Amino acid sequence: MITDITTMDCNVYLFIGLFMIATGFLVQFFPKGIDSYQCTPKKNRKNIDLKGLSHLVRNAFLAQGLMTMIASLWGYGKYVFAPTLVIAIIIIKIKEQKYFKRKTE
Fold first, then answer.
1. Does residue 104 sit within a domain?
2. Which residues lie closer than 8 Å to 61 by C-beta, 6 or more apart?
3. Rounded CA gap, 52 and 96, in Å?
4. What does the alpha-carbon distance between residue 28 and residue 51 come to, in Å, rounded to a whole number?
């Protein structure tokens, strides 16, 4: 019975990892869905390097999805998912600032 629960956990976190990877590729193809872009006033949106920002978010989601999938194969998916999600969000929020072009007046 214990192996069934472990197998179920493994399958759940494998699916979550695949979902994060798919989300990363969707963000690359539909970059206007990124929260940082949506929350920016319309007049300032032209100053955002949307291609670079979408690549940053895609890479963070890919890394997080791969780490979750690899950890789930060893049975540690539930311990890795939340910390990698928090780390990915922190990295995105810190590094996204270089994709916002500032006007020099």
1. no
2. 20, 21, 23, 24, 27, 88
3. 9
4. 8
Split into its structural domains, the chain has a count of 1
User: For the segment 46-67, what is each residue's pLDDT rounded down to a tens digit?
Assistant: 887 788 888 888 999 999 999 9
Among residues 18, 84, 23, which one has the least CA distance to residue 54? Answer: 23
User: Full-prediction pTM beyond 0.70?
Assistant: yes
Q: Find out whether 61 and 42 touch, Cβ atoms under 8 Å.
A: no
User: In 30-101, which residue ranges form alpha helices assigned H by DSSP?
Assistant: 35-38, 50-73, 77-95
CA-to-CA distance for 56 and 52, rounded, in angstroms? 6
For residue 105, being part of any structural domain is answered with no
What is the extent of the structural domain holding 87?
A: 2-99
The one-letter code for the residue type at 79 is Y
Task: Give residue for tokens 């929020």.
Answer: 93
